[in-house]
Design brief:
This protein is α+β, with helices and mostly antiparallel strands. The protein is built from two helices and four strands, in the order E-H-E-H-E-E.
Length: about 80
C-alpha cells in the first residue's frame, strides 16, 4: 500500500507554547479529512503538548521523528469526523 503524501508542512519552531498548538490547530483546520500535516516543532514543552493536544482533538499522529537538532518532525492525519467543523 502506498504511503500518503504530505498535504501541508508548517514550521512552528519560532513560537512557544501555547501558541505552538494554536498554529498547529489553524494549519490542520485548513485540511480535508484524511490529509496529512507535517509539523516541525521544538523539543520539550511543544513536543510534549502539541501531539497530545492534536490527539485530544481527534486527529491521529502517524509519526514523530527526532531531527537531532532540538526539533522534531511530527506528521498528523486530520480526523475525517472533524473535517467539516
Amino acid at each position: 500500500m502506498a504511503e500518503k503524501a504530505i498535504t501541508k508542512s508548517e514550521d512552528i519552531t519560532d513560537v512557544v507554547c501555547p501558541i505552538t498548538f494554536v498554529k498547529a490547530k489553524v494549519a490542520i483546520e485548513g485540511l480535508s479529512p484524511g490529509e496529512l500535516l507535517e509539523l516541525r516543532i521544538n523539543e520539550g514543552e511543544a513536543m510534549q503538548n502539541v501531539p497530545r493536544s492534536l490527539k485530544e482533538e481527534g486527529h491521529r499522529v502517524t509519526s514523530a521523528k527526532d531531527n537531532e537538532d532540538g526539533t522534531y518532525t511530527v506528521v498528523v492525519e486530520k480526523d475525517g469526523l472533524r473535517g467539516k467543523e
